[in-house]
Amino acid sequence: MTYSKDISDIPLKPPVETFVDDPTSLDECSIDELMFDLTHGIKNINKLHVFHAILVLSQTLQDIIKLQEHPALFEQFRATQLAKFGIELSAVRTPEIDQIGLMKYGNSHSSTPPSSPPLKFTKLNEPSSFSLAENDFGQYAEATPESQDEEGEEDAPFVPIEQLVKSTSLDEVETPIDSSCPERFRKEFFSCQKNKRLVQNSHLLKSFNLVKLPPLLITDFLLRIKTYSSSISVSSYIHSALLMFKLSVLLDIVPLTQMNAYRFILASIRCSTKNLEDVYQKQKSFATVGGVSPKDLFKVEVGFLYLCNFKLIIGESLLNQFLTSLFLDLRNFCIEHFEIDKKPKD
């Protein structure tokens, strides 16, 4: 005897979140689980959720700040990282700046005096993505004046397309510009040791310092940016973390502190989004989210570009190298040497 039952009467199991479900909040992301996934190749830049990227950026900044508070440990970690690029830190002589009104650069961990107003956070009603319209330039319309070419002046010569096609090679290069190249980094490293660059950097750093700490923690600040600037991609957050690691650890030109981290977050994310994703949001709107004026946002953006020497090169291999090597090294080193409410090990 057969018994038939309407399929609608069959009770279904309630939906259960599986291990492949994307996190819906930062609380659902575990730094230990993320490190395990990165170590074993389970996750890479293409498999990260935006909350994972925010966690990586937040943890990177906090670890660097903590590490730079202990110069001996910082130099120890930095030496191991530079050795990967064939640079022996003990053989590198750090030049000193002793000119009119300039700080002495014997140790880059001395912070510049605060010179910027505190961040002012405006309560925004609802998150949204903004697009750049023609009238969004407002007061910056005069920043690009009309051409002042004189009458009768001839146009500059150009190379015909046919000639460009003949002289252009599509062969794969040995070391693409968007891949890791130790020799390329060594040139950049020793270029940063020149006195001229050090003098310039000491002035640029002052624009990132705040008079007082904002009411938000670094993680909460990043979540605010994510909430009201939802178009920012995973790659932009990871690229920002890579740039801050490079400036603070590898090149050692940014003494990262709680007082300047917030403006570095704004500058690095803004530069990364403009480099990767064009402009998805008005400058004024992003400034409001970050608690700064459009003028100050532009100022820290330009300052950040000069600190980076306008080298914002990015590629999938570079981001994956940061995630699976540099970030994990930093995290493991801090886990090994720091414990809650305890001094670092000698």
Summarize the structure.
The protein is mainly α. The protein has helices at residues 31-39, 50-68, 71-83, 161-167, 182-191, 195-204, 218-228, 234-250, 261-277, 283-290, 294-307, 316-337.
Description:
InterPro entries: Cyclin_PHO80-like. Pfam families: Cyclin. It is a single chain. It contains 12 helices and no strands. With 346 residues, it is an all-alpha fold. Helix 2 (50-68) crosses helix 12 (316-337), helix 8 crosses helix 9 and helix 8 (234-250) crosses helix 12. The protein starts with 30 loop residues before the first helix and ends in a 9-residue tail after the last helix.
Mean pLDDT: 79
Query: Which stretches are poorly predicted, pLDDT < 50 over at least 5 residues?
Result: 97-114, 128-149
Largest sheet features? none
Give the structural class.
Answer: mainly alpha
List key phrases describing it:
346 residues; mainly alpha; Cyclin A, domain 1; 12 helices; Cyclin-domain-containing protein
Give the SSE layout.
Elements: H1 31-39, H2 50-68, H3 71-83, H4 161-167, H5 182-191, H6 195-204, H7 218-228, H8 234-250, H9 261-277, H10 283-290, H11 294-307, H12 316-337
Pfam families: Cyclin
GO molecular function: cyclin-dependent protein serine/threonine kinase regulator activity; protein kinase binding
Organism: Suhomyces tanzawaensis NRRL Y-17324
